[in-house]
Design brief:
The chain is of the alpha/beta class. Helix content is 37%, strand content 20%. It starts with a helix and ends with a helix.
């Protein structure tokens, strides 16, 4: 994903100038025109206008995020894990530093879930449910077509829909992190006892022609669950194929809003990161 974001940014040289990169092995890029370091936390403290954190996980991503916000940088991240576990702390740091923390790419790739919640109706949301993991959706579809799990995962990796370690996608942790990010956006505090997830590897094909298995993620004010559900193939969520995701936002008045798009792969997530960068560019130019 980092390479995809960099490719998009460098096409917008009139808006952005990349001042530094971090890579685990700079020797692989000996002729790169942008300085490359292995010390991401130091780079994050360099005072750049914007720091992008795209490595995922908690360590060292959390230190990178803290360093960026406490040293005067806006932070754009696609990391749902640090937002799910430390989002309140990081948002507090952003407010204290008068900086912005944007994480649209942390939920649903290009599916505008967080953007849709950031409206005047945000306090009237009753629940959010959907298919929020493109890798899981692709793998379940492959399993239903008769592929063994290992082959399905390998195919997802080959197509760029799955990481080298897809365990968080398969066991529901990735989707659950996204639910907790959504809960934070809505200022909901979910009790630990009301959080549950089901692993895709526990599901057994049913060979149903009317329904299809989906990794169904749902969050309300008092619970967050990720389960494998048999859904009507003609329904909004049941009709999703391959890496496609969708979320159904239900409001207290009974109305709903559905957003959908590709939820896995380099370009969907890269485009969502770029959208946050462009939003920051607009905000700073209007200030």
């Amino acid at each position: 994903m980092g390479a995809g974001v960099l490719e998009l940014i460098t096409q917008l040289h009139e808006l952005f100038r990349v001042t530094g990169l971090c890579a685990s092995n700079p020797a692989k890029h000996p002729d790169h025109p942008i300085p490359i370091t292995t010390d991401a936390t130091a780079l994050a403290a360099s005072g750049a206008d914007i720091v992008l954190e795209l490595i995922g996980g908690i360590d060292p991503a959390l230190d990178i995020a803290r360093n960026a916000l406490t040293n005067g940088s806006h932070l754009v991240t696609a990391n749902k894990a640090i937002i799910a576990e430390h989002g309140r702390e990081l948002n507090a740091l952003a407010r204290q530093s008068n900086r912005r923390l944007l994480a649209s790419a942390s939920v649903g790739g290009v599916v505008p879930v967080l953007e849709s919640l950031n409206t005047d109706r945000v306090r009237s949301v009753r629940s959010v449910r959907g298919v929020l993991n493109g890798t899981g959706n692709f793998v379940l579809g492959a399993l239903e077509s008769g592929q063994p799990l290992e082959q399905a995962v390998t195919q997802a990796q080959t197509l760029g829909f799955a990481e080298s370690d897809p365990s968080r996608d398969l066991d529901g942790r990735d989707a659950l992190d996204k639910l907790l990010v959504i809960a934070q956006q809505l200022d909901w505090s979910i009790p630990e006892a009301s959080i549950a997830r089901q692993c895709i590897t526990e599901w057994k094909p049913t060979n149903s022609t009317l329904s299809t298995a989906k990794q169904h993620a749902a969050v309300s004010k008092d619970q967050a669950t990720v389960t494998i559900e048999q859904l009507d193939r003609t329904s909004t969520l049941g009709s999703l194929t391959n890496e496609w995701n969708a979320a159904i936002i239900e409001y207290d008045d009974g109305s709903t809003r559905t957003v959908r798009g590709k939820g896995a792969g380099r370009w969907p997530t890269s485009e969502s990161v770029l959208a946050d960068l462009l939003q920051l560019s607009r905000e700073t130019s209007d200030a």
